[in-house]
Amino acid sequence: MKKIKDLPKIKRPREKLEKYGGISIMDKKKIEKAIKEILEAIGVDHKKKDLLDTPKRVAEMYEEIFAGVHKDPEEELEVVLDQKHHEIILLKGIPLYSICEHHLLPFIGKAHIAYIPKNGRVTGLSKLVRVVDILSRRPQLQERLTTQIAEIIMSKLKPMGVMVVIEAEHLCMSMRGVRKPGMLTITSAVRGIFRENQKTRSEALALMKQ
C-alpha cells in the first residue's frame, strides 16, 4: 500500500484549530473569494445582508469537513500487543459523513468494520472510528474510502483478515440527477481470511446485519 504523502510545505503561518486539535493549512481567503464568484455566477448578490457572511461561513465549514486532507490515518492505529483474542472484532454502524468529489455534495451513511487479530495485535476501538473520520473528511469516492479503510488496517495491524462495509445515501442522486432520495449505495472491501473462508465471511456479514 502506498504511504500517504507528508504534509506539503507551506510558506505562511499555520492557523491552529482549537476545536479539532489539528492544524489548518487551507487558504480560507481564497475559498471566500471563490464562493463570492460562485454566488455572482449563479446570479445572486453576495453583498445582500443575509449573504454577507456566507463566504466566510463556507470557508470555515470547508476547514472542518475537509480536515482529514492533510492527516495520516495510520498514525491513529496504535497497536496494543499481547491481547489474547483471536475471534472477530466488529464495530458496527459508525456514522459517516463525506463529500463526493464528483459534485462536492455529501454522502451520508454508516461504516461497519470487522477484523480478526493476529499475534495479539489489536487497537483501541476509538482508533478505528478515527480512521473512518479522517478518511471521510476529504473529497472522496465511497468505493475508494471503503478500500482505504481496509488497506490501512491490514497494513498497520497485520490481522488475519479485515472486512469493511459502507452503506450511504448520496445527495448527488437524491437532490439532482435521478432524484431518488433514500436509495443506498453499499460497498465492501474484503481481505485475508474473510476473502478466503466463506464461513468466516458469512459470520461477519450476519453480525453486521443484526
* Number of DSSP helical runs: 7
What level of helicity do the residues show? 25-40%
CATH topology of the largest domain, by name, is GTP Cyclohydrolase I, domain 2
Question: What do the pLDDT scores average to?
Answer: 89
Can you say what the CATH homologous superfamily of the largest domain is? GTP cyclohydrolase I, C-terminal domain/NADPH-dependent 7-cyano-7-deazaguanine reductase, N-terminal domain
The CATH architecture classification of the largest domain is: 2-Layer Sandwich
Question: What is the element string, with H for helices and E for strands?
Answer: EEHHEEHEHEHEHH
Name the beta content range: 15-25%
Q: Give the number of DSSP strands.
A: 7
- Biggest sheet record: 5 strands, mixed
Termini separation: 32 Å
List segments where confidence is low: pLDDT < 50 over at least 5 consecutive residues.
1-22
> What general form does the structure show?
elongated
Strand order, largest beta sheet = 5-3-4-6-7
Structural class: alpha+beta
Cα-based radius of gyration, to the nearest Å = 20 Å
Task: Characterise the protein shown here.
- The chain has 210 residues and is α+β, with helices and mostly antiparallel strands.
- It is 35% helix and 24% strand.
- It is built from 7 helices and 7 strands, in the order ββααββαβαβαβαα.
- The strands form 2 sheets. The protein has a 5-stranded mixed sheet, sandwiched between helices.
- The longest helix has 16 residues, at 142-157.
Summary?
The protein has 210 residues and is an alpha+beta fold. It is built from seven helices and seven strands. Strands 5-3-4-6-7 form a five-stranded mixed beta sheet, with helices on both faces. The protein has a two-stranded antiparallel sheet with strand order 1-2.
